[in-house]
Amino acid sequence: MSGKLGLIVGSGASALGLEVVARAPTHTPYGAPSSPILTSEIAGRRIVWIARHGEEGGIAPHEINYRANLWALYQHGVRQCVGINVVGAIEEGFSPGDIAVPEQLIDYTWGRESTFGGRDGRVLHAEFAEPFSRTLTARLVEAARESGYDVRRGVYGVTQGPRLETIAEIARMARDGCTMVGMTAMPEASLARELGMDYAICALAVNYAAGRGPSNEGIHDQIERYLRDGMPRIARIVEYLVREHAASAAV
Ligand code: HPA
Question: Which protein residues touch ligand 1 with a CB less than 6 Å away?
């Protein structure tokens, strides 16, 4: 697998424990990305990443400048992009604390800037039957399993937010085939595809989606707790991935 590896890190970025060693403010034709291009050392390699919700964490899912984020990473040479996301668990048997690498998605978002547009007066219809890169997804699954964690696959339903969903909305999403719910996989995945970048997601479940668990009481405390406990495991997976990526790039 070729090309520089980069990350887009969502909620819980600080719990991932990435020490920033460089910050490159970046401008794009689409405006400013959520954060400068950040550089951290992972497994002895310098890896660039963007804080999806901003370094201070105040950018809501529907306010994220997805185009600028993807463009900025591309400009910095990233061709393999891993999104670190948190999700609510829908599927039975999928619980907070579990890790998932989705294989499909359904997009319920609206009103987001979702294309870079075509060239020479042509509309761009990106091929998107498989929204995640097979090779990068396989590497993530391997990285998780080799790090000692079970990994769920499944279908990521992308909601608009920033509010959480109703019980009826989650029931509908379950009927649609969604096994997890989050707010940020789109248009991130399709913009990556437009740029020809490999893109995959490593997701941490931090709560039961509405109506799926015992109770939605105290959900925000629950989310915080699962973020704090789960992110170090995601960090280990990313470390393994970086090491393997570096090894394969060297041959
Ligand atoms: N719904 C939508 N997005 C989420 C959730 C949820 O329950 N949990 C984490 N991100």
Answer: 86-88, 159, 164-165, 181-183, 206-207, 209
| Nearest-angstrom CA–CA distance, 73 and 112 | 19
Q: What is the pTM of this model?
A: 0.95
The residue type found at 163 is R
Question: In angstroms, rounded to a whole number, what is the distance separating the alpha carbons of residues 80 and 95?
Answer: 28
- Using CA atoms, how far residue 239 sits from 4, 71, 162, 179, in Å, is 15, 24, 30, 26
Task: Give 10-residue mean pLDDT values along the chain (251 residues).
Answer: 89 87 95 97 95 95 98 97 98 96 98 90 90 97 96 97 97 98 98 98 97 86 93 96 85 49
**Three-class SS of residue 198?**
strand
In the reported structure, the alpha carbon of residue 136 is separated from the centroid of ligand 1 by a whole-number distance in angstroms of 24
Domains defined for the chain, CATH in brackets: 4-250 (3.40.50.1580)
Rounded-to-integer distance, Cα 83 and Cα 7, Å: 6
| Residue having the nearest C-alpha atom to atom 9 of ligand 1 | 87
Question: Ligand 1 centroid vs 100 CA: distance in angstroms?
Answer: 14
DSSP 8-class letter at 63: G
User: Which residue's C-alpha comes closest to atom 2 of ligand 1?
Assistant: 182
